[in-house]
From TrEMBL:
Stored Gene3D superfamilies: Oxidoreductase, molybdopterin-binding domain
InterPro entries with a match to the protein in the record: OxRdtase_Mopterin-bd_dom, OxRdtase_Mopterin-bd_sf
Domain of life: Bacteria
Lineage of the organism: Bacteria, Pseudomonadati, Pseudomonadota, Alphaproteobacteria, Rhodobacterales
Annotated ranges, domain Oxidoreductase molybdopterin-binding: 66-135
Protein name as it appears in the record: Molybdopterin-dependent oxidoreductase
């Protein structure tokens, strides 16, 4: 299932689970989740997603010219918040393109679910609403076809499969 992003929240996890989105959902996460905010899934709006602690990375990509600043949520923050501990993340784009990302990629200093590039929200036309970005410039291990192929854009759904 996918993640959806919602409105303003007091915090990412309420006593009974993840807070509910108040705004337009743009990410839906489903599958093997320990924490949800809807029946068998977690929905995120922009505020709920941002409540997980945005970070910024500066990196070049093979799809853009020069170095850009990307702001988003560490993949690790998302998997931690939802209690995803192993297996695979099946990530799907708006056009149903799909990639499989091992949960082991969700590490400190690892990829982020970027929602801004150079301080501006990414539209669908600009690879938004979410783009899985690896820190290609700070870790040469990420500069390979394996990681390039995982860098899905127009991401709107994730299914955790154990």
């Amino acid at each position: 299932m996918a993640l959806a992003i919602g409105g303003l929240l007091a915090g990412p996890v309420a006593a009974e689970g993840l807070a509910r989105p108040e705004g337009e959902v743009f990410l839906t996460v489903s599958g093997d989740l320990a924490t949800t905010n809807a029946p068998e899934m977690a929905l995120f709006d922009s505020a709920l997603l941002a409540s997980l602690g945005p970070v910024e990375i500066r990196t070049s990509t093979i799809w853009t010219e020069g170095v850009h600043s990307f702001t988003g949520i560490p993949l690790k923050a998302l998997t931690d918040a939802l209690g995803v501990v192993g297996g695979t993340l099946r990530m799907s784009a708006i056009n149903d393109y799909m990639v499989e990302v091992p949960v082991s990629d969700a590490i400190d200093e690892g990829p982020i679910l970027a929602y801004e590039m150079d301080g501006k929200p990414m539209s669908v036309r600009d690879k938004g609403p979410l783009w899985l970005i690896y820190p290609f410039d700070s870790n040469s291990d990420y500069r390979s076809e394996v990681y390039y192929s995982r860098s899905i854009w127009q991401l709107d759904r994730i299914e955790a499969v154990n």
